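Quick log. Single chain, no ligands specified.
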Amino acid sequence: MRVKDIMNTPVYAITPGEPISRARNLMLRHRISRLLVILHDEPVGMLTKSDIGRRLDQAEPQWRRRPIDQIPVQLVMTKSLISIYPDATLSQACELLLENDIGGLAVSGEDLYGIITKWDVIKYFSQSTTNIRVSEIMSDFVAVVHRRHSLSHILQTMEAEDVDRVVVLEYGGRPVGMITNSNLTFACMSGAPSRKRKMVELPILAEDIMSTPLITIRQDGLAVDAARLMVEEMITSIIVVDEDEAVVGILNQESILQATITIGEQL
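-> predicted structure:
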């Protein structure tokens, strides 16, 4: 399978000087999560939903207190654009995505042809006939918190374990939800009182901000079924449980990409 066979076309683009508000509107209108940034018909960067959320949340001086229709794309975009040839293999695309820890690649040669993302790979993998089991590709480390743990404890756990998500457990160890960086961004949104005052009158607990219901899959299930669930539910990871519903691992986008590399031309 070649990159050109599953890449996205047409390419939606924006220029560096256009405002973030237009980029957001384009993403919403076309239901996409990234835009190529073009200057004089040449790609110079990429802008994703994550870029917008992460950079604006930093509240740095160049865009602090400025409405998004006055913030140019060039202040927020990722400038180190990585591309791949359309005739490259799917495995080569996965290797580039994993090595550079990015969500998408520009597909180009003499011209710009499209974009290939992690989601494109996962969608393709979900339609394959491989019999790889979830237990073969999952990560067996999962950071957990209790549903009554405070926001402060959650932040400390995520920093100490160097993870971007934690599973929330009920009494008895049953998994009931997940907290990601997105949940935390919502909980810590700008507009809270200044540091000289209390941020909140009541403590925020894990159960207040976790995402539910929690999507799980059995460890003896097929990896293609996990990928299909990820596509259907539009989630980037699935918690893996055993026959007693105890958490034993996590399967994420990177797991699927690594499996694609391992299988290679069999897909």
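Residues 20-30 form the longest helix (11 residues).
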